[in-house]
Amino acid sequence: MLATAVSSPPALQVDLHAHPRGVISFDAVDEHRIRIQSGHARGRCEGKRFTAASGDIDFLPAGSAARWEEDDASASIVLRFPPSLLQRTAEGLGFDGARIGLAPRHQLRDPQIEHLAWALRADREAGSPSGPLYAESVGLALAAHLVTQHRALQSISSRGLSKPQLRRVSDYVEAHLDETLTLSRLAEVAGISASHLKTLFKRSTGLPVHAYVVRRRVERARTLLLRRELPANQIALEAGFSHHSHMVRCLRRVLGAAAAPLLRGGR
């Protein structure tokens, strides 16, 4: 069945980078990234000279890339987190999480972000004695600060989920049909909040998430019933239904009269 249990927010990930002089590049990924400069560096970006000071902050929103050249060796801290963390935090603060995002920013100064980054670096260098709990708590504090101080409104696409998002969600559903699927887990797979997933998934497929999962389970049950290799009770479990009568109700609701010959042949 599709449950709506809420899971803990994904942990903030912390990367420590040492950059030799030369070209530095960040490829586009599905996560938001915040880069904090450690030490001074001079360089060029898009033909323009710049000087970076320790504590300078760059925002690289999900899907964005960056490339520049530095004349000096330097270091940086990169904080990575999925858009769903920002969106969930925004919803908890009373904002429309589906419209909250980050805008690209460069050489921003923000003492609070800098303080959190140094604290995370110290924890990482100490071997993370508190485990993921510390990073999760700092991640929530960072997300709340970004929402209240640096949020950027983004339009909700009328086209629904992107093709990669829809493929990830549908592939995950197919691979876990016989398990309990939660809306929060599917939202994590898509990299968005649960409320955003409900809206965009229906735009993409014409079905609510729950109805889509039921249809895929009905189709799996139909395939297995036609093979006549397993008892009906086992087929129900293989297709993700809680019991045989649950499968029968769903087959009749989705397939109508076409369900009758399938059910007569079940053992």
UniProtKB/TrEMBL annotation:
Keywords assigned by UniProt, alphabetized: DNA-binding, Transcription, Transcription regulation
An example molecular function term from Gene Ontology annotations: DNA-binding transcription factor activity
Annotated HTH araC/xylS-type domain residues: 167-265
Domain of life from the UniProt record: Bacteria
Pfam families attached to this UniProt entry: AraC_binding, HTH_18
PROSITE patterns: HTH_ARAC_FAMILY_2
SMART domains reported for this sequence: HTH_ARAC (SM00342)
Record has Hydrolase as a keyword: no
Keyword Transcription: yes
Record-linked Gene3D superfamilies: Homeodomain-like
InterPro entries: AraC-bd, AraC_XylS_family_regulators, Homeodomain-like_sf, HTH-like, HTH_AraC
Protein name per its UniProtKB record: AraC family transcriptional regulator
